[in-house]
Amino acid sequence: MTAERPESIAIAGHYVRLEPLTRPLLPELHGAIAHPLVFDGGFGGGPGGLRTDLAGFRDWADAYVQWAGLPFAVRLVGGPHDGDLVGMSTLGDLNLEQESAHVGWTAYDPRVWGSAVNAETKLLLLGLAFEHGFGRVKIQADVMNVRSCAAITGLGATYEGVIRRERRRADGSWRDTVIYSILESEWPRVQAGLRARLDGRGAEPVRYRIRQSH
């Protein structure tokens, strides 16, 4: 089966709603993720990539976001923060002939770390990929992003290895990239695990935690 490119449309879950990310949404995204805690782990080029002013953040996003893929803004559903934009994630590097894709370019407001947001976002994006005929989905992280690596392992993805000196970070240092993947044959197991994690959280909407200072 040859993979098909999914439509760029909103996807609704129980805790989050994924909305196609567009440039008019960048001010909201800036408010959610332009924070040292987000970039310190290696996201967006690492600490040197952080732009706390909106103009600088727009320039960063123009270069970083994979606009040619399917970037999504992540909004909360229900509760006191209903509709708040709390992050982004992307289904990108779409290779229809090879039936491969990449779920990445992911960051969230630290106030929703440890909540149901990442698990449901990944459930929706991975489901989107496998429902459209992709046979392999890659997920990767900067080797220094211990938090992201743990989260990817927690999804049930398979560790493949490390690509050394794979790209430069924003500060000029070289990044080693940790590679994981999920195959179509593994998706039922991964999907069941994610659903069980989410079911264990109950029906209550996501609430903000206190955002730490840097």
TrEMBL record:
Residues 48-157 form the N-acetyltransferase domain. InterPro entries: Acyl_CoA_acyltransferase, GNAT_dom. It comes from the Bacteria. Transmembrane segments: none annotated. Signal peptide: none annotated. This is N-acetyltransferase.
